[in-house]
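Cross-check.
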Amino acid sequence: MNRAPLSHLTSCLAGICLVVLVLAGLPGDADALSPPYGGQDGSEGPAAVVELLRVKVPAGARGAWLQAEQESWGPWLRRQDGFLGRDLLWDAEQEEGLLLIRWRSRRQWLAISNEEIEAVQVQFEAAARRALALDKVPNPFPLVDAGELEWVGLTPAAAAKELR
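Predicted model, tokenized:
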């Protein structure tokens, strides 16, 4: 019996297994090097931009804030070129809502006109007043601060490491 073909087959299978193992490890490593949420379009470099907004949200009005966001900004944002998603967070100690709005590029985010933003803000404030059963109050959830963040890195979650 000639063992040379069997030895060659074993070497080939071992090589294939090694390649598969190396490639299986790449997604976790690649995540640490590229922006989350698919943030590259070539126009603004490698990093996605996150719009950061803080608004005053009293504890008793948190549900109304979320409802007004869902009725106004949510649908409008989903139609915008470059919008990747958003996170709505609430700081109980400061009684503030924190909005992290992810954009594919800074150029796409800043291409939105102030007139469009103001029109949606009017809808948001009207929805907030309806949800709170208030009539002639100015914005029930005033802006506290606004800024932007540039993505620079990612630490993979412990759970993701355990799944590998």
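The beta strands are 49-56, 83-91, 96-103, 143-150. The helical segments are 4-33, 62-71, 73-78, 106-110, 114-132, 158-163. Passed to J.P. for a second look.
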